[in-house]
Every structure is written in structure tokens, then in C-alpha cells.
Design a protein that fits this description.
The complex is a heterodimer. By secondary structure, chain A is mainly beta. Chain A contains no helices and eleven strands. Chain A starts with a strand and ends with a strand. In chain A, the strands form two sheets. In chain A, strands 2, 4, 5, 6, 9, 10 and 11 form a seven-stranded mixed β-sheet that branches. A four-stranded antiparallel β-sheet of chain A has the order 1-3-8-7, with no helix packed on it. Chain B is mainly β. Helices cover 0% and strands 54% of the residues of chain B. Chain B has no helices and eleven strands. In chain B, strands 2, 4, 5, 9, 10 and 11 form a six-stranded mixed β-sheet that branches. Chain B has a five-stranded antiparallel β-sheet with strand order 1-3-8-7-6, with no helix packed on it. The chains are: A mainly beta, B mainly beta. The interface between A and B is medium-sized, with 27 and 25 residues.
Chain lengths: 114, 114
Amino acid sequence: EPEVTQTPSHQVTQMGQEVILRCVPISNHLYFYWYRQILGQKVEFLVSFYNNEISEKSEIFDDQFSVERPDGSNFTLKIRSTKLEDSAMYFCASSEGRRNQPQHFGDGTRLSIL
Amino acid sequence: ILNVEQSPQSLHVQEGDSTNFTCSFPSSNFYALHWYRWETAKSPEALFVMTLNGDEKKKGRISATLNTKEGYSYLYIKGSQPEDSATYLCASMNYGGSQGNLIFGKGTKLSVKP
């Protein structure tokens, strides 16, 4: 069964450094998402992406964050200047349709900011 | 701000017991309710997507119901098995500003003892 893959599984970065999290969504899916879960808290929506542009973003997704689909397969999340509070598990997801289709999640990238 | 609540937070049952847990969500501008099963160190796995009031869905021993007027959904597991041990997440999707993104509850962590 096709799956969403994320790399790396764990990223340790110094505060202030840039980090890029990578995702390969399921190939025939059209909608892509990033979520994060800070330890002990709820999974939170960051951004959705469709037709090569952001379709929606949350308040968390400020100017430090950006997303890109650089080629036909990868979907990346960049954090420009990381802060301690960016430490979290970051999940990529994709879906065929937007609302009434399930979202398929990757295994996540654990980001630790030192 | 939309808030999705799940109860109980955790549940310990014996193998063979049937169990259920609750997800409550804002009923205004409701579009869809998603249930996910999340095993430790794996990605959340989609169980159900429900949109209509009175919807009932079933997958093996797991079933779910939806009441959109009062804003709740129940997830039932019949004859729990140790492999059912996981965190069960529900997530609401609404019309308006949150088109396509999921608002998650904190999850119910189920432990099934052999």
C-alpha cells in the first residue's frame, strides 16, 4: 500500500539554524499538509498546499516557515531560524480530495532544537 | 477557536472487553469528523471519515457513530484485543476559515491487557 514517507526521522539543530523537513506524499494525491505535535499537546495544523500554492495556514505558520514542492514528488517544510519552542514532532500528510477524504500521514520527523 | 475534546484521556481494559470513547466537537459549520488510530512509533492511520448526521461506519470490530446536531461521535471496539492498543484521535473539519485542515482532539489512549 502506498505511504507517505518523511525524512529524517530525527533532526537535532542548534537554535537559530535553518532546518528543512522532507516529505514524499502519495503519488496520486493532490492535497498536502503539515502538522506538528509538541510533546504532551494536541496535533496542530500548520499549512495546507494545493496546486503549487498554500491554500490555508494557521497562526503558527509565521514568516519563519515556508513550504515548497521543488519537484514532482517532494514536499518540504523549512523553518528559517529555529527557536526552542519549535521542538516538536512534525507530520506530513496527503489526501486525494480536500474534505471528505482521509488524510494519510507519514511517521513524522522529531525536531529537537538545542 | 474550534475545540475538539476526547474522553476519557486513557482507558485500560482486559482482552475481550468491549469499550467506547467519546469525541465532542463544535457543531456549527461542521463538515466532517475523522477518526485515526495511532500506534506508538507509527503514523496515524485513518479509520473513518463521517459527514452526515446519524452516520454509522464499521471496520471489523471497530465502529463509529456521528451526531452533528449535538456535536459528538462515539467510537466502539467490540471484543478488544491487545493489538487494539493505541491512541485513538478524532479530528473535526469545518466550513469557513478551516477548509481542509483538521482540528484534533488530544486522543484516548487505549491499553488492552491479555
